[in-house]
Amino acid sequence: MLATLTVALPAHTASAESGGTPDAGPDCRPSVRILESLPGEDPYPNPWLHRTQVNDIGPAGLSVGVSHDLPAYWIGTKVFAVPLPAGATGGRVAAVNRSGLMVGTLTTATWTETLAFSYRPGARGVTLLPGGHTAADVNDRGHIVGTRYDDDPGVTTGLEWAGGRIHRKLLVPPGYRLDYVTGINNAGQVIGSGFGPSATGDDGPASPGLLWSAAVDAGPTALSPLGSLDHQYRPQDIDDSGRIAGTYLSVQEQWLNLPAVWAAPYGSVRYAPRLPAAHRGTFEGLSPNTNVSVGIASHFLYAWPPPQDHPQERAQYWTGEGPMRALPALAPNAFTTAYTVTDDDRVGGAAEDAQGDTHPVIWTCARKQAFVPADRPAVRTGGADTAD
After folding, report:
1. Largest CB tally within 10 Å, which of 96, 230, 290, 333?
2. Among candidates 152, 150, 184, 190, which has minimal Cα distance to 170?
3. Do residues 94 and 104 touch, judged by C-beta distance below 8 A?
4. Whole-model pTM?
5. 366: part of which helix (H) or strand (E)?
6. What are the structural domains, with CATH classification, of the chain?
7. CB-based contacts of 79, cutoff 8 Å, min separation 6
8. Is residue 12 within 8 Å of 371, Cβ to Cβ?
9. Looking at 5-14, 94-103, 173-182, 323-332, which range is the least confident one?
10. What is the pLDDT of residues 242-256, one digit of tens each?
11. CA-CA distance, 214 to 355, in Å (whole number)?
12. How far is CA 244 from the centre of its chain?
């Protein structure tokens, strides 16, 4: 039986809620809205497996994502499965636009063979996107972006679809290799990442974020800095002004991740502040017009004994200025993750409850309930952890 959950929450949590109050606007009530899950269970709840979460929020109470490794959408808190075509075993919905057009990726029994698809709520079946293996985003004009991968010669190609057809292949300059395509805004700008000629003159390739204009024959602009194999830049989302949010990954520095933003006219990257005590952080989503970014903070360095509420991953929220803030959890020590944020301040993601179960969730009035955790970093001296 699918049930909507309401739970009592500890300090630094909002009231969990199943409906009956506005989701957004001046009269909204801060809450963590827990959405239904499809039948089944995840035997290994983990925020990095992406098996159950809200990936995007659409119109009229519609949200989309994944539930127990199956592509799913919600109307209010009620869950619906995206019908799988023959041969598909699972997948996820990555994004939805204001008209309810969903896009995503289906998995098959052969893990390297995936299928890009689109879908509308209540349709009898999905539409497979021609030539596509993944679909990452869709704008309000119905343009969809994703990739295909060809084993021979081992090349990833970025694709943009419109009207069910390939609108363009995303061109890359000579010497570049595309890695990911991650987003498109309503102006038709597309973002991704890849590898290109060395920026330092050595043998190692650069690893910049890439930006394409809406022109059909446009090549990409490499965002600064150009990076390297050890210092990689991965744009994740782009808003309607062209502002980009993503992550800087330093392989050399113990996989140190930093949330990063690029703003037109695209000078160098700006790093967002870390959540207190966090060693790593990402940006996964960006509001279309209000300059709010959300993501995940992790690998916390706490004093010993740690504070009561010390999850290893926290959903983080940044307004574009001031400190990074966390969003409340469902239980002490339980992880939270955030992947999308709307202009009316709803944040979608996932949260673990006190029993260790993962739920798709939406935080309403997110700014009103976001908080700055106590900063209690750990310093290792002589084998013991002590506070600064």
Report:
1. 96
2. 190
3. yes
4. 0.89
5. helix 366-369
6. 51-387 (2.130.10.120)
7. 2, 35, 36, 37, 38, 67, 72, 73, 360
8. yes
9. 5-14
10. 999 999 998 776 668
11. 47
12. 13
